[in-house]
TrEMBL record:
<dbReference type="InterPro" id="IPR020845">
    <property type="entry name" value="AMP-binding_CS"/>
</dbReference>
<dbReference type="InterPro" id="IPR025110">
    <property type="entry name" value="AMP-bd_C"/>
</dbReference>
<keyword id="KW-0436">Ligase</keyword>
<keyword id="KW-0547">Nucleotide-binding</keyword>
<feature type="domain" description="AMP-dependent synthetase/ligase">
    <location>
        <begin position="58"/>
        <end position="411"/>
    </location>
</feature>
<dbReference type="InterPro" id="IPR045851">
    <property type="entry name" value="AMP-bd_C_sf"/>
</dbReference>
<dbReference type="InterPro" id="IPR000873">
    <property type="entry name" value="AMP-dep_synth/lig_dom"/>
</dbReference>
<dbReference type="GO" id="GO:0003987">
    <property type="term" value="F:acetate-CoA ligase activity"/>
</dbReference>
<keyword id="KW-0067">ATP-binding</keyword>
<protein>
    <recommendedName>
        <fullName>acetate--CoA ligase</fullName>
        <ecNumber>6.2.1.1</ecNumber>
    </recommendedName>
</protein>
<keyword id="KW-0007">Acetylation</keyword>
<dbReference type="InterPro" id="IPR042099">
    <property type="entry name" value="ANL_N_sf"/>
</dbReference>
<dbReference type="Pfam" id="PF00501">
    <property type="entry name" value="AMP-binding"/>
</dbReference>
<dbReference type="Pfam" id="PF13193">
    <property type="entry name" value="AMP-binding_C"/>
</dbReference>
<feature type="domain" description="AMP-binding enzyme C-terminal">
    <location>
        <begin position="470"/>
        <end position="548"/>
    </location>
</feature>
């Protein structure tokens, strides 16, 4: 087989004729799939859960197939509807209103999903936080969003700096709660007392439903704000790209603290009323193959970093499991290596479909679909309804095969509607009618897009986006660290690892123990995935005359590349 081209798979796929679909497409047509199109009553929680719970043929279908070490559970659409109603009642009792920010900081569990939809049912805005976050990360996000309520566990409570969070009125504790204070609400007790009836808050399609914090190259993480209208694109991409069918067992491996874990770990399958596997716990190849095998997963959405680990685990590990139910695989978050695609053909006899999108875009934009050929190394082509291009820094389109800014014509259904508390940041994404992604890419003559790299200093480590500023800020809080500059260093398994260059304060000597202590400081203060794997002590950190750290220069030094223009370098 020509490795440059992997032909479309046979079979009846939901999007059979890509070209025709693009030509005749209108987002308006997708609206026919929602009940609000007739009733005028909008809430994404109704479309994802209650609508199926009210359907006699669907209500007893398993919505959530939950599995984590030591716990397994099946939750039907009707049960999830009732549990989320109960939680919505709890929230109302404590005065949560439409537009309030309610954050979740807890591991994946059936309670998480009941709470998540409970929040949406009140019209409040949900803010899921990655469970590995430590105090500083929690502080930044809860302060910026002025969160009114937080749902967490007694185990994680110690990481919540309550004294710095004046807007936080109440904390719901899920789990054995020995805290005795007005501030805490006992989840179990309140849920026992709550009724299963709730008058859902009907909202406008343009009302807020979700905030995901994500990193740029400067400043603290930014609150990317999404609205109920995003469901239109979640639904459509689930149909075309995930190729969702009613009897599918779908598994998206992403944590709901990241956008993939909400858009495609929650909304996409449930808007279609499809059974959704949720797996908690840590990654091991045997557990993952075991999950595919045990639940007879048919459609799987995962990330290159996980796939690369499966490749390293070898063929014997695959062969131990029966993966014959698996029919469709997709990947997101980082470049998908052509070797991984080749391995997928051998290991699963399936193509792995790359998809490209971002926290800010809310849903998939550039994709591979089953009925089109795959060109390994390419992210694929834009979905129907999306105009993607390569533009220069002024927003002028560039011809095929020329590298530039990957950009999207603004105004798709799932696009972020603002950056919380930061209108100028929001504006800065748009040039000449284009949303400029920060990625560089080119487009070939046939319309396939090829990812080249980030144009800013954002780091992508194991598919997780880390802002260097956040790490640098934490590093300099360590008593030994005077200055810090942080870069992403290429790594075969993780894509990039975080490398920090630091200078030491007087009185501190470079030693392995000190560097280990500094690393631990970031790990326990900010989060494990943001802690530098490598730290190098320097005499100075290169800065511009205006005091900006020249990460680009650090990176060139690290990689032994030409240093380019250094005219702005401080003396
Ligand atoms: O650089 C691109 C990379 O991940 C960035 C977006 O990260 P985040 O907002 O965390 O969202 C990740 C999942 C939606 C992009 O700017 N990225 C995402 N998908 C791909 C990718 N890089 C290469 N290929 C992809 N398929």
């Amino acid at each position: 087989m020509d490795m440059q081209r992997i032909p479309a798979r046979d079979g009846n796929h939901n999007l059979q004729d890509y070209k025709k679909m693009r030509e005749n497409f209108s987002w308006n047509d997708v609206k026919n799939n929602f009940s609000w199109n007739e009733t005028g009553k909008v809430n994404i929680a109704h479309e994802a859960i209650d609508r199926h719970a009210e359907d006699p043929s669907k209500k007893d279908k398993v919505a959530l197939l939950y599995s984590s070490p030591g716990r397994e559970e099946k939750v039907t659409f009707e049960q999830l509807s009732k549990e989320s109603n109960k939680f919505a009642n709890v929230l109302k009792k404590y005065h949560v209103n439409k537009g309030d920010r309610v954050f979740l900081f807890m591991p994946r569990s059936p309670e998480f999903y009941a709470a998540f939809f409970g929040i949406l049912k009140t019209g409040a805005i949900a803010g899921p936080l990655f469970e590995a976050f430590m105090e500083q990360a929690i502080r930044d996000r809860l302060q910026d969003s002025e969160a009114k309520m937080l749902i967490t566990t007694p185990e994680l409570l110690g990481r919540v700096p309550q004294e710095d969070l004046p807007d936080l009125e109440k904390i719901v504790l899920v789990g054995d709660n020995s805290e005795d204070s007005d501030k805490y609400i006992d989840f179990k007790k309140e849920m026992n007392d709550a009724t299963t009836d709730f008058d859902i808050e009907w909202v406008d399609l343009e009302d807020g439903m979700l905030i995901h914090y994500t990193s740029g190259s400067t400043g603290k993480p930014k609150g990317v704000y999404h609205v109920h209208n995003a469901m239109i694109q979640h639904y459509a991409t689930a149909e075309w790209v995930i190729d969702m069918k009613q009897d599918d067992v779908y598994w998206c491996t992403a944590d709901p603290g990241w956008v993939t874990g909400t858009s495609y770990g929650i909304f996409a399958p449930w808007l279609h009323g499809v059974t959704n596997v949720i797996r908690g716990g840590r990654f091991t190849p045997d557990d993952w193959y075991g999950t595919l095998d045990k639940f007879n997963v048919t459609v799987w959405y995962t990330a290159p970093t996980a796939l690369r680990k499966l490749v390293s685990a070898g063929e014997d590990t695959v062969k131990k499991h029966d993966l014959t139910s698996l029919r469709h695989i997709m990947s997101v978050g980082e470049p998908l290596n052509p070797e991984v695609i080749t391995w997928g053909l051998k290991a699963f006899d399936l193509r792995i479909h790359d998809t490209w999108w971002m926290t800010e875009t809310g849903a998939m934009l550039i994709v591979n679909i089953p009925s089109e050929e795959i060109r390994p190394g390419s992210m694929g082509k834009p979905i129907p309804g999306i105009e993607a291009s390569i533009v220069d820094n002024e927003g002028n389109e560039l011809p095929p095969n020329q590298m530039g800014n990957l950009a999207i014509k603004e105004g798709w259904p799932a696009m972020m509607r603002k950056v919380w508390n930061n209108p100028s940041k929001f504006e800065s994404y748009f040039i000449n009618g284009w949303y400029v992604s920060g990625d560089s890419a080119y487009r070939d003559e046939d319309g396939y897009f090829w990812f080249q790299g980030r144009l800013d200093d954002v780091i992508n480590t194991s598919g997780e986006r880390v802002g260097p500023f956040e790490v640098e800020s934490k590093l300099i809080e360590h008593p030994a660290v005077a200055e810090a500059g942080v870069i992403g260093k290429p790594d075969p398994e993780r894509g990039e690892i975080i490398k920090a260059f630091i200078t030491l304060n007087d009185g501190y000597e470079n030693s392995d123990e000190l560097l280990a202590d500094i690393r631990k400081f970031v790990k326990t203060g900010l989060s494990g995935h943001a802690a530098p794997r490598e730290i190098e002590v320097k005499d100075t950190i290169p800065k511009t005359r205006s005091g900006k750290i020249m990460r680009r220069l650090l990176k060139s030094w690290e990689l032994g590349l030409p240093t380019g223009d250094t005219s702005t370098l401080e003396e």
